[in-house]
Amino acid sequence: MIDYKTFKKGFLNEWVGQSQVARKAAEELANKDGERSLRDTYKPQNVVMTLNGRQVEFKGENEKNPNDPKYNLFTYEEAMERFGKPDKDGWRLPTKEEFVALGRIPYVFDEERGIGIFGSILGLPAAGLRYCFSHESFIGNSGCYWSATHFKSSEGDFAYRFKFSPRVLDIDYYAQCYGYSVRLLRDL
Predict the structure, then answer these.
(1) What integer pLDDT is reported at residue 27 of this predicted model?
(2) Could you tell me if 76 and 11 lie in one domain?
(3) What strands, in cross-sheet order, belong to the sheet with 54-58?
(4) 87 and 136, same domain (yes or no)
């Protein structure tokens, strides 16, 4: 009969070996196609978190924009048109207050994969941004996400965004013509 210590050591060695084989296979797959990377093969699951004393569930992936299939960035108008009200399952844009609460959770930036990781469970791609009616920038270096919170001033229409990079974690507002990512959540 095998003792527990020997079993545990054998199990861990096998698990580590399988993990290394799986990672190597993923890297080889990514290297076969120059446009792909490990982050393209990473498919996270929905994540449940507590924000402002409430449990919410974030979708596992950013929303796709058929008007921008390469980067999947939305103007604020596009985001509100599609996600401004909860859908039949309750998925919606986060509010400014929910992003403020998310910003209080421990955060690290995985530069290798270009992902901001919150509370070690929620990964948001640093998908960059698109300037108003212009070009994309900061792909892989910064993530900007629309909130549902907006306001009008004498200077124009603005909406709050959640921004992160290796050195910055911020909630601020910008013109609604910018292109940012969208990650939905719902109340549980």
Answers:
(1) 55
(2) no
(3) 47-51, 54-58, 185-187
(4) yes
Report how far residue 75's alpha carbon sits from residue 148's, in angstroms, rounded to the nearest whole number: 12
Based on the domain organization, do 56 and 25 belong to the same domain?
A: no
Can you read off the two tokens belonging to residue 41? 């093969």
Which structural domain, as residue segments, surrounds residue 175?
Answer: 42-187
DSSP 116-150: EEETTTEEEE--BEE-TTS-EE-TTT-EEEEEEEE
pLDDT band at 133; cut points 50, 70, 90: confident
What are the φ/ψ torsions at residue 129 (nearest 5 degrees)?
-155, 165
94-129 confidence digits (pLDDT tens): 999 999 999 999 999 999 999 999 998 999 999 999
